[in-house]
Write a structure and sequence with these properties.
- The protein is α/β, with parallel strands linked by helices.
- The protein has a single domain, classed as Nucleoside phosphorylase domain (Rossmann fold).
- Strands 1, 2, 3, 4, 5, 6, 7, 8, 9, 10 and 11 form an 11-stranded mixed beta sheet that branches.
- It starts with 6 loop residues before the first strand and ends in a 12-residue tail after the last helix.
- The mean pLDDT is about 90.
């Protein structure tokens, strides 16, 4: 049986508990297996493919996620767009835990990750000047407004290698550059989607203030426990936002700049 889907979702477990008649499928790609089985279901007439990027048991740390296999599997399913929520840290005092940031730029500080489908003999140089889908970003911002979610309408995410968190010096540097969000998974996930002509939007749920903020002794450096606590507290907001966004997406459109 050939499986197809309209919209892909990368995220944590629990999202598809709201979907009915979920079918899990194993997939193989030229780049190996994805992080886990992919769950496919229908929501309001649209076929949704869900994949936990770290695996259901969180067995893949950020630098070991099979990013190419994950994106290629979505391409094999013929999805037109990917929704990618992620737990992230804030680098600026006005972006608070519990806020959402709809990122529009990234800065890559990772190394050694397989980050292109063009390893040769075919070579292509794909622009990443504006890596996030403008149409999906607009819809995500609209949905946040409608649902009363505190959201920042743009932001630059600096992607670090992980799994360690930043030193104070690194965090101070990132903040001084004017970057807004820190995360471990946006690169190369975002860029690989662009290479495959798939629209992609990131919704960063802010869980912490990274290594603290300059001059704020009341803000402590991030801990893994704090990240999970804040994310779990806001998980329902993430799900509601995703379903609201799915309702808005016109899956018949094929003229987005991401497709060119």
């Amino acid at each position: 049986m050939e499986y197809k889907a309209d919209i892909g979702v990368f995220g944590g477990s629990g999202f598809y508990s709201f979907l009915e008649n979920v079918e899990e499928i194993e997939m193989e790609t030229p780049y190996g297996k994805p992080s886990d089985k992919i769950s496919i279901a229908t929501y309001n007439g649209k076929r949704i493919a869900f994949l936990p990027r770290h695996g259901k048991k969180h067995q893949y740390p950020p630098h070991m996620i099979p990013y190419r296999a994950n994106i290629y599997a979505m391409k094999q399913l013929n999805v037109s767009c990917i929704l990618a929520p992620s737990a992230s840290g804030s680098l600026q005092p006005h972006i608070k835990p519990g806020d959402f940031v709809i990122c529009d730029q990234f800065v890559d500080r990772t190394w050694g990750r397989k980050d292109t489908f063009y390893d040769g003999p075919v070579t292509k140089h794909i622009s990443s000047a504006y890596p996030y889908c403008p149409e999906l970003r607009k819809l995500a911002i609209e949905t946040c407004r409608e649902q009363g979610i505190p959201a920042h309408e743009n932001g630059t995410v600096v992607v670090i290698q992980g799994p360690r968190f930043s030193t104070v010096a690194e965090s101070r540097w990132f903040s001084s550059m004017g970057w807004h969000v820190i995360n471990m998974t946006q690169y190369p996930e975002c860029y690989l989607a662009r290479e495959m002509n798939i629209c992609y939007v990131n919704i960063s749920l802010i869980t912490d203030y990274d290594a603290g903020l300059e001059g704020r002794d009341d803000i402590l450096p991030v801990t893994e426990e704090e990240v999970y606590r804040v994310f779990n507290e806001n998980n329902e907001k993430v799900k509601k936002l995703l379903f609201g966004l799915i309702d808005k997406i016109d899956i018949s459109r094929h003229d987005c700049v991401c497709k060119k």
